[in-house]
Amino acid sequence: MQLSGHIKAMETALLDGEAQYQLPIGEQQIDMNALIGQRIELEYKNVRNCDNCGNEIKLAQKIYPGGHCAACFFSLAKCDMCIMKPETCHYDNKDDPCREPEWGLGYCFQPTVVYLSNTAKVKVGITNKKRALNRWIEQGAVSALPILEVKSRRDAGHIEVALKAFIGDKTNWRNMLKNEVELSNLTSLKTSLLSQISEEIEKFGATNLQDDVININYPVLKYPTKVVSLNFDKTPSIAGVLEGIKGQYLLLDSGVLNIRKFSSYHLTLST
Predict the structure, then answer these.
(1) 120 and which of 70, 176, 222, 236 could share a cystine (Cβ 3.0–4.6 Å)?
(2) Residues 133 and 48 occupy one common structural domain
(3) How confident is the model at residue 187 (pLDDT cuts 50, 70, 90)?
(4) How many domains does one find in the chain?
(5) Domain of 173, in residue numbers
(6) Are 66 and 141 within one domain?
(7) Is 44 a residue whose pLDDT tops 90?
(8) Per residue in 52-77, pLDDT tens?
């Protein structure tokens, strides 16, 4: 098999408790789970196109997060700092309004959940209610528990800030990829944490969710004992046996490859 095209972050789903991955490449969707155990090669063709406008991003130009050109990155609402820090949402700020009010209304002012997850160790996070499962898989969580629901990302962001006084919000991605996970009892931790933020829960009208813990297995034959990060800008042709997938990473016997990082790159996939 040989396919070429611009790639995007892998699409995810959960089937019988195991994460499923589809890699968009050009107009095709590749079932990456089916390739585990096989030797694959990904070759970078020195072509990059903005994920939004499609314009070519020259090699001398900086490519921005999400595979965007400079013009799109600094004009799109989804690239604004408030997406990373939702508590800073400025949707109704007349002096610094939302870049795209209609988009912001449809994306940010939707039911949002605050959750706990075990990645490398326990962390707090927020996500759109409809995308919760995808979010946990993308982060490489082995278990997750939605704890509160609010009406917007902004409200969820304020609650997350309050919870960060007691728990972290970052993932040690190297430990996550090595499957070195410090498991916490999410249900017990939820009870303890919510008792610490009763004022915020009342202020933002948060609903206490009664969901069960979701456990996620990953299609991995062998976890790396040492994480070697692969990079198309340094090594245009990357090959190896695909030993597994976790988060947005391909786990090859030659190293690990963060697919999301290279969204908008033109690649050829060969098996």
Answers:
(1) 176
(2) no
(3) very high
(4) 3
(5) 110-215
(6) no
(7) yes
(8) 999 999 999 999 999 999 999 999 99
- 255's CB contacts (< 8 A; 6+ apart) are 224, 227, 228, 229, 230, 238, 240
C-alpha span between 46 and 236 (Å, rounded): 8
Q: Is 247 left (phi over 0), alpha (psi -120 to 50) or beta?
A: left
pLDDT surpassing 90 at residue 10: yes
**Which two three-digit tokens encode residue 271?**
């098996």
User: Which domain-ending residue is among 215, 232, 247?
Assistant: 215
Judgement on whether residues 100 and 124 belong to the same structural domain of the protein = no
Residue 211, pLDDT > 90, answer no
CB-based burial, 118-148: b 16+ in 10 Å, e otherwise: bbbbbbbbbbbeeebbbbbbbbbbbbbbbbb
User: Where does the pLDDT of residue 41 fall: very low under 50, low under 70, confident under 90, or very high at 90 and above?
Assistant: very high
For the residues 163-172, what does the mean pLDDT come to?
95
